[in-house]
Write a structure and sequence with these properties.
InterPro entries: Glutathione_peroxidase, GPX_AS, GPX_CS, Thioredoxin-like_sf, Thioredoxin_domain. Keywords: Oxidoreductase, Peroxidase. The chain is 26% helix and 18% strand. It has a 4-stranded mixed sheet.
Length: 159
């Protein structure tokens, strides 16, 4: 099993098979618009502009499970990200990332790479680094700035 075995609805509601990203390094992030870590959108977009999207993609998955920090609908989220941070990387519909209603992708990601709370997602902007084969190679805490991950992304892209 790999991340390519999953599907998710993009921010416009279209179901996307993650196999579409096969052969690319992925950084999968659960995001929120009203979080102390929200400014990470800028670093994520900067990395995406420098490295994406031929061999690398960032996939953003909004989530409202942590202190109600993503209350808006898909249109609100998309507009917020574009207007405030110029986000051009793919965004998906708002999902749950923990608990019994967690999206299957995030259940899989968390099972493959534990964090400080074991297998559960701790907060917004938890990041999962995926290699070109679709395997989870690392997990980064919300406090880890995207710029600190860039070298690892580049290394995976060169493999």
């Amino acid at each position: 099993m790999s991340v390519y075995d999953f599907k998710a609805k993009d921010i416009s509601g279209e179901e996307i098979s993650l196999s579409k990203y096969e052969g690319k390094v992925l950084l999968i992030v659960n995001t929120a618009s009203k979080c102390g870590f929200t400014p990470q959108y800028k670093e994520l977009e900067d990395i995406y502009k420098k490295l994406g999207n031929e061999k690398f993609e960032i996939l953003g998955f909004p989530c409202n499970q942590f202190a109600n920090q993503e209350p808006g609908g898909s249109g609100d989220i998309k507009n917020f990200c574009e207007i405030n941070y110029g986000v051009t990387f793919p965004l998906f519909e708002k999902i749950d990332v923990k608990g019994e209603n967690a999206h299957p992708l995030f259940k899989y990601l968390a099972s493959q790479a534990g964090g400080i709370l074991g297998k559960e997602i701790k907060w917004n902007f938890t990041k999962f680094l995926i290699d070109k084969k679709g395997d989870v190679v690392d997990r980064f805490a919300p406090v880890t700035k995207p710029s600190k991950i860039k070298d690892k992304i580049v290394k995976l892209m060169e493999e």
